[in-house]
Design a protein that fits this description.
342 residues; alpha/beta; Nucleotidyltransferase, domain 5; 11 helices
């Protein structure tokens, strides 16, 4: 092994086929993402079977492009890191199966990476000064987790969603008000033209989980409001509903996060995941962190969405800690963050 540890990373947990070459955990030599958004937009959301088939088509050229962009060969790699969960099981299986085949054929060690750990690690790539411990809010289409990052490979879940993830709620509400898929970026954009106080939507608080989240009631409240307007013949102002809904989501995310920051005395706070690219959420979190005099971190939008660079970063720290995945590594759709095997 050379002085520098080179990781080939593969990510296929949902609808992006991605591969990257990452050196020493933080230097990204290539980051290739083949998105399926246009394909799934036709159906108003991700269709798992279609996603899996498209991964099969794209995984070989995407990995080859990642190696070519980095100016390297597979034999130059010290390890292969792959997302093994959570996610869509068919999609995950494409990446895991191909990573295992590469590992077996090349005798290069394999590392399984938890998708949420990857999102958290995205913050390391652009913030070389960031080191654990810190607190991180992971918000995406499938996950809403508030996590204490105690060390590079040690995580403590403080809160998580009891029902819909924040990103899932964005997609469902966007569809309901006629914005289409993907909902997050579209609601973020149209909300700038709306009044966030136009409609008073509920901010859920989970009694038995101080830092847990719930967004299904909010989603239902939006649908009920739309039905009520329709029945009464009242005008539906798309921008106002989008802004009011978004404000309710962000209020809850900020409230729970800052409650935990205050209670645990966190000195650093980060956000990650697809919804972390929401401009209103970034502004609100940055403002609250500034009030408390703590450092705030967030990845660039390209590193908020599913990508392989973040998997390479997380995989590097797992690899350096001695973690190796066996060739019977399986894809697990609901893999918990606390799973000691990942």
């Amino acid at each position: 092994m050379s002085d520098h540890v080179k990781i080939l990373a593969i990510e296929t947990s949902c609808d992006e086929t991605a591969a990257a070459v990452v050196v020493d955990g933080r230097k990204v030599l290539s980051n290739v993402i083949s998105s399926q958004i246009d394909l799934h937009t036709l159906y108003g959301g991700v269709v798992p079977e279609i996603a899996s088939r498209k991964h099969i088509e794209k995984i070989v050229p995407v990995i080859q492009q990642a190696l070519d962009d980095a100016g390297m060969k597979l034999s130059d790699m010290d390890a292969i890191a792959v997302t093994s969960g959570p996610g869509l099981v068919g999609a995950l299986l494409v990446g895991v199966s191909y990573a295992k085949a590469l590992s077996y054929a090349s005798s290069i060690p394999l590392v399984g990476v938890h998708h949420i750990k990857g999102h958290i690690a995205a913050n390391y790539i652009e913030a070389p000064e960031l080191e654990p411990p810190f607190m991180c809010l992971v918000v995406s289409g499938g996950h809403t987790h508030l996590v204490n990052v105690n060390d590079y490979n040690s995580f403590e879940i403080l809160g998580l969603t009891r029902d819909d993830a924040a990103g899932e709620a964005f997609d469902k509400v966007a569809r309901a008000i006629g914005l289409g898929y993907p909902g997050g970026p579209k609601i973020d954009k149209v909300s700038r033209e709306g009044n966030p106080e136009a409609v008073s939507f509920p901010r859920a608080k989970v009694d038995e989980g101080r830092y847990d989240f719930s967004f299904s009631g909010l989603k239902s409240a939006v649908l009920n409001h739309l039905n009520s307007c329709s029945m009464k013949g009242e005008e539906i102002v798309q921008a106002d509903i989008a802004a009011s809904f978004q404000a309710a989501v962000i209020d809850v995310l900020v409230r729970n996060s800052m409650d935990a920051v205050d209670r645990f005395g966190a000195k650093k706070f980060a956000i990650a995941g697809g919804v972390a690219s929401n401009s209103h959420l970034r502004e609100a979190m940055e403002s609250e962190c500034k009030k408390r005099g703590i450092d705030f971190y967030h990845p660039s939008p390209i590193l908020c969405t599913d990508n392989a660079a973040m998997i390479g970063c997380a995989g590097y720290y797992a690899f350096m800690a001695g973690e190796r995945a066996p060739l019977d590594l399986n894809a697990v759709a609901d893999l918990p963050l606390s799973d000691p095997s990942i």
